[in-house]
């Protein structure tokens, strides 16, 4: 069930009506059942994988908390990591690695006969795998105690608003909320509806319309001129942002209605003034997960500049691999790692001091284009498409006013779909507050929301596309 489908609305209305009248302990049990129903609606077979991860990490956490031997504690941690990453590896990465091994051996003149599994990727597996792993690692580090209540833990792992595409929640935030009395209030429901509608607008009006703009350009870059190619990259940059952050807003909105506070996963990333700042604003729960469980354990920035740069590149390459089993994702991660490494290496130089004196809008625009090159790598399905796209885009001799006039409709459509988003986000950035509209007079709030709803109803594609991050 997708958040913008009528069958989801029917599911949620029935669920919420019953949930509202239940006591807390029964609420958690009912929520767990609803979450399994929601996940099973995709494919009931995948529920088994979710149950395995839940059972293993619950039991491992229990054993870790009572075990004093460091050796046995490490063995238990390895058991959790091997189970979770083993399942993730088989379903997400096996065919990718085997096909590359076969290609490599074939290039050496061999004829390997290695079978591919061709398994369907379970929805949300990368998200809930990282969520359960963070719990086990935190219990191992004695940062948190193990969870004694299996129902609470299982509900934390499978919480349906954020199960498929995050945010990736830590136990110290979300699991703790299952143990407390949660009030369903008018204020919470109002904020929840506001978040859900805003996320719906970002997904259906902005992202899905921009997909219609970007997809044909990326499908046939050889027959597009540089202006179209440039706005194809722009369109995808805002498409993937609105698609993913739209899901997060809807998830947080559903959580608010149910009495939960989910983590903010995006903080106006297109207003970033450096690549590092972008990653502090983009997919925050993944960025902090990678920082706490990979970058810092590798040594972080504690062992000199060279090691720091290597750690950044390794972490970002794994970030790319997390997104998908394909070389373009790995190269995208490495590209961002290289940029972050360069920023760190040049941190105390005159070049960086000059950069920091530049006007903020200039730094934002420059950062947006650096990140945009990364999105080009991310979006192109193979190296041949990337080379063709880049060759035409950066062919300076092909740029002309005639090309701009030819693609006026592309430029206008881009700003029609992105304009309302930027208007709201400029106000959010200026006031440093995501719920800036809550302070508006009633007439202005009503007017703005009426316009957004009209755009959503009359200018959104009828066939809503699946969320991009569902494939990860």
Largest sheet: none
Q: Which shape, going by the Cα principal axes?
A: globular
Q: What is the tally of helical segments? A: 20
The overall average pLDDT, rounded, is: 91
Intertermini distance: 17 Å
Helix amount, in percent?
over 70%
Rg computed from alpha carbons, rounded to a whole number of angstroms: 23 Å
- Percent strand: under 5%
- Structural class of the secondary elements? mainly alpha
Which sequence of SSEs, written as H and E, runs from N to C? HHHHHHHHHHHHHHHHHHHH
* Poorly predicted parts: none
Number of strands: 0
Multimerization state: single chain
Tell me the number of structural domains.
2
TL;DR of this structure?
72% of the residues lie in helices and 0% in strands.
Layout of secondary structure:
Layout: H1 6-20, H2 24-40, H3 47-66, H4 70-107, H5 125-140, H6 150-158, H7 160-163, H8 171-178, H9 186-219, H10 226-258, H11 275-281, H12 284-298, H13 305-323, H14 327-345, H15 350-357, H16 360-379, H17 383-393, H18 401-406, H19 408-431, H20 442-459
Helix pairs in contact: 2-6, 3-4, 3-5, 3-6, 4-5, 6-8, 9-10, 9-19, 9-20, 10-16, 10-19, 12-13, 13-14, 14-16
